[in-house]
Specification:
single chain, 296 residues, alpha/beta, Rossmann fold, 8-stranded mixed sheet, 8 strands, Dienelactn_hydro, AB_hydrolase_fold, Alpha/beta-hydrolase
């Protein structure tokens, strides 16, 4: 969470119960665990997807909706731990950010006062998150969590990781890790991230090259966390350093997809009224599902 877009967006409506359930202690974390419903058309898989949330964590319905969809469409178990140090942002912050970002003419005194009040309310949560909640602080514990999840999978199971905003940093970092400390087997068998925060282009290159884990990213062209030109530079550098186009040559597979006119957070928190971002969110979900179905 390193910009206003990281804590803005829309809470998606959800009717009925979620498919999965929360457990209070799954390898040390409160975790939402979801499996394919009995009505799913996809064959059950022995693999697991580790879903690393954005800054709103398990309290944002959008994340559970998406996790349920991944499970139903891939046949995998999906685990989503509450892993943000100090706790996640409450979804109500998005309402404050709507007020902060809404246009107000300079002579509208009441409007300016409302905006100032919304800024003050948002800062009550934003500042502690910045001080306590950087994803690098959670990374050592999440490496262990991911290793335990992989170790308990049935024979033939693979580990996928999906990371969004705050969680994108973690999902990319996990690509460098091995399944056991000092071991040879890679930890992550397939990685997907959307609009990751706190990352550098070098992190992506290092993650892909370390264990040759398949990498996919969904990136909006209006995302200022990682711009399209910077991401394209990463692709060009990878082609040179690996001798591959990302289609399997020399064991490297990667996929960079760009979503025109979509901003940071679109894959999880797109406003239903924004047709461009809503379609981008739909397409990004299908991108992730296809990627995991291919590699897990």
């Amino acid at each position: 969470m390193s910009c206003a877009a990281c804590i803005s967006g829309s809470i998606h409506a959800h009717s009925g119960d979620f498919v999965g359930k929360e457990t209070p202690d799954h390898h040390g974390y409160r975790t939402y665990i979801t499996t394919p419903p009995s009505t799913a058309q996809t064959k059950p898989s022995p693999s697991t997807i580790l879903f690393i949330c954005d800054a709103f964590g398990l309290d944002l319905p959008n994340n559970k909706i998406l996790a349920d969809r991944y499970a139903a469409s891939t046949g995998c178990t999906v685990v989503m731990p509450a892993c943000i140090p100090g706790g996640p942002m409450p979804p109500v912050v998005m309402e404050y950010m709507d007020a902060v970002l809404a246009p107000v003419v300079w002579w509208d005194v009441l409007g300016q006062l409302r905006r100032m009040a919304a800024v003050a309310k948002a800062l009550r949560y934003f500042v502690p998150m910045i001080l306590k909640g950087h994803p690098k602080k959670a990374l050592p514990q999440l490496v262990e969590y991911a290793r335990k999840v992989k170790a308990e999978m049935p024979q033939g199971g693979k580990l996928g990781v999906a990371g969004f905003c705050w969680g994108g940093f973690v999902s990319i970092k996990l690509m460098k890790e091995t399944a056991t400390p000092g071991g040879a087997e890679k930890l992550v068998d397939a990685q997907f991230c959307a609009h990751p925060s706190f990352i550098t282009p070098q992190m992506i290159s290092e993650g892909i090259e370390a264990q040759k884990s398949p990498f996919a990213i969904a990136l909006g062209t209006k995302d200022h966390q990682l711009s399209k030109p910077n991401a394209q530079e990463v692709e060009a550098g990878l082609r040179q350093s690996t001798g591959s186009d990302g289609e399997g040559e020399n064991g490297f597979e990667w996929q960079f997809k760009y979503y025109e006119e979509c901003g940071h957070g679109f894959a999880v928190r797109a406003a239903p009224g924004n047709k461009t971002e809503a379609q981008g969110a739909e397409d990004a979900a299908e991108q992730a599902i296809a990627w995991f179905n291919k590699h897990l």
